[in-house]
Design brief:
This is EAL domain-containing protein. There is one protein chain. This protein has 289 residues and is of the alpha/beta class. It is built from eleven helices and ten strands. Strand 8, helix 10 (241-250) and strand 9 (254-255) form a beta-alpha-beta unit.
Length: 289
Amino acid sequence: AAKEAGRATYRFFTPELNRRASDRMWTENNLRRAMANNELELHFQPQFSLDDRRLVGAEALVRWRQPDGTLIMPGQFIPVAEDTGLILPLGDWVLGEACRRVSELLRHRDLLIAINLSAVQVRRPGLAERVAGWLSAYGIPPSALELEVTESVLMDESDVVSETFSQLREMGVPLAIDDFGTGYSSLAYLKRFRVDKLKIDRSFVSGLRADDPDSGAIAEAIIGMARSLRMQTLAEGVETEEQYNCLAAMGCDQCQGYLLGRPMPYEDFLEFVRRDVATAELRVAEVVD
Ligand code: C2E
Ligand code: MG
Ligand code: MG
Ligand code: MG
């Protein structure tokens, strides 16, 4: 009977494991070609100031557009890229492409573009030089970028990591912690590195209820700590007006989420920026009248 159960379990798990293994293999085999073929693109999700809902910037999020138009999301290929080392050329492409877009966007208005960095990229010596190279190639100020890393990256005690972050700091490139609160419990790294912004993870935002003060306990604690350490806060994954209002009441600085804007292709984001500029000019004109 045990043997039979074992065999049943085996049969039950195999198709799923097989599918995942072959997905991975497919991704691995095709990602390199996709990069050479220019199939990667950056989408931009707008970020807003919480008190007045004004656009302040965007997060750049990579997508893989297949020749037939299908979009593959980063969750499917970033982990594979990290395992195979392809994340190094991929991450460098993201940096260059983001800087190119920033140089165009800055002609319309001041914005801050956030870029995700993988741990693999940060552990490899030379990242700060790469960033400096792209900044000067496109003639953009370091303060127009923001680099996002997760907590685990800052827990790394290696000299390479602290050297890279101190170089970036000296250059004036802001640093944000992504998915804050979901990683490690030690906060010692907040004293070792100067962090500009904490991005409050979506898991602490999704449950916010106006009629339940406990639902906001963690978000509120993060905002309080950020304030005393003079860091900004940005809430991720804001989907409802109720969540928005709870965060505003707590004094969170910024937000991003489906409520105010989904990630979108560059051309759509440019249109978004243009409309924002036009609205602001209209407001100024009304005040002058
Ligand atoms: P992340 O950096 O935490 O990005 C936020 C993710 O949440 C994005 O998923 C975004 O589309 C999604 N999101 C935004 N607003 C909402 C909302 O209101 N509700 C919900 N349910 N989701 C929302 P996406 O684009 O699939 O990216 C997933 C992850 O892939 C990112 O998480 C980031 O860790 C990674 N990633 C994306 N682009 C890059 C990149 O260029 N380089 C690296 N190394 N990683 C990247
Ligand atoms: Mg991010
Ligand atoms: Mg995040
Ligand atoms: Mg997240």
